[in-house]
């Protein structure tokens, strides 16, 4: 495949995303909205480049039970592929529909190239918070390496800061076993970031999980220090019991969610939260999230 030109979120994809977001649910036995059609499940195939790799079986069973009783309400977005159709957004719903033994599902058919398909799949999954940190990082890496996106362009595409993109991509430097821990939720992103520069991240990751260390303790361990033998014992140093460690972890957690630098200044019973931004787009993103408006 020839290399696609470098670009960010184009007008075509932006319009498509807005149209998909505005698409009304298909009520059972109701007239279908314009643009929605029914396709047989057998004619639809998943996208092998779908960013999301992990699908929880219990959650799929719950959704399948709901679909069996009420049918699929939210249409799946597909594109023509070969003699059938390929999923752009909605693979989880398609999988659950199969388990529910549905024969047809409502879909929206769109003509999309490979770049638009991957971009839209990433945006849809991120908005639904369906991707774990490793899946998100691998999707960004593919857009960077195969389609020539810059980190700045990726940030604009998904309304995240460049530093957020860079931090996620750095997770891919970790050994495979550690990435699996992050993908499964055994190890969170804050712990994983602390292990990137450690001399033996695999061994340290196992120790972090076995001992239930905090992010602050993990950072000290990665620097060559030794956190307390057991959490909760009286000999735990006071620094690990202080509010500073919790505030630092909260800053990192909020920073990962927003993709921006967050600073918490706590004094007595009050304080302030400072969110740094470098562009008006990032400021607009913060305002939308604080006001509860759809992004």
Automatic annotation (TrEMBL):
It holds the Pfam family ParB_C. Belongs to the ParB family. Keywords: Chromosome partition, DNA-binding. The keyword Iron-sulfur does not apply. Residues 37-126 form the ParB-like N-terminal domain. CDD domains: SPO0J_N (cd16393). GO terms for cellular component: chromosome. InterPro entries: Chromosome_partition/occlusion, HTH_ParB/Spo0J, ParB/RepB/Spo0J, ParB/Sulfiredoxin_sf, ParB_dimer_C, ParB_N. It comes from the Bacteria. Involved in chromosome partition. Localize to both poles of the predivisional cell following completion of DNA replication. Binds to the DNA origin of replication. One of its GO terms (molecular function) is DNA binding. This is ParB/RepB/Spo0J family partition protein. It comes from Sphingomonas montanisoli. The keyword Transmembrane helix does not apply. Residues 218-237 are annotated as: Disordered. PANTHER family: CHROMOSOME-PARTITIONING PROTEIN PARB-RELATED. GO terms for biological process: chromosome segregation; positive regulation of sporulation resulting in formation of a cellular spore.
């Amino acid at each position: 495949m020839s290399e696609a030109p470098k670009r960010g979120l184009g007008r075509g994809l932006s319009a498509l995303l807005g149209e998909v977001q505005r698409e009304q649910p298909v009520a059972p036995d109701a007239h279908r909205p314009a643009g929605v059609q029914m396709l047989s499940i057998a004619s639809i195939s998943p996208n092998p480049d779908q960013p999301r790799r992990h699908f929880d079986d219990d959650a799929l069973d719950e959704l399948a039970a709901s679909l069996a009783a009420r049918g699929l309400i939210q249409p799946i977005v597909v594109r023509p592929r070969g003699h059938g159709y390929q999923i752009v957004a909605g693979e989880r719903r398609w999988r659950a529909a199969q388990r529910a033994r549905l024969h047809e599902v409502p879909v929206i058919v769109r003509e999309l190239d490979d770049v638009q398909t991957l971009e839209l799949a990433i945006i849809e999954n991120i908005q639904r918070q369906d991707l774990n940190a490793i899946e998100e990082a691998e999707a960004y890496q593919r857009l960077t390496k195969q389609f020539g996106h810059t980190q700045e362009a990726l940030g604009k595409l998904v309304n995240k800061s460049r530093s957020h993109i860079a931090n996620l991509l750095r997770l891919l430097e970790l050994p495979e076993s550690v990435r699996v821990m992050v993908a499964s939720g055994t190890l969170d992103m804050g712990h994983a970031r602390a292990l990137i520069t450690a001399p033996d991240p695999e061994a340290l990751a196992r120790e972090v999980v076995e001992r239930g260390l905090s992010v602050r303790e993990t950072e000290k361990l990665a620097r060559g220090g030794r956190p307390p033998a057991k959490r909760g014992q009286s000999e735990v140093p006071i620094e690990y019991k202080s509010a500073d460690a919790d505030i630092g972890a909260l800053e990192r957690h909020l920073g990962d969610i927003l993709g921006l630098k967050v600073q918490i200044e706590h004094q007595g019973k009050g304080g302030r939260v400072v969110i740094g931004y470098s562009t008006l787009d990032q400021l607009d993103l913060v305002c939308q999230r604080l006001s509860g408006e759809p992004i």
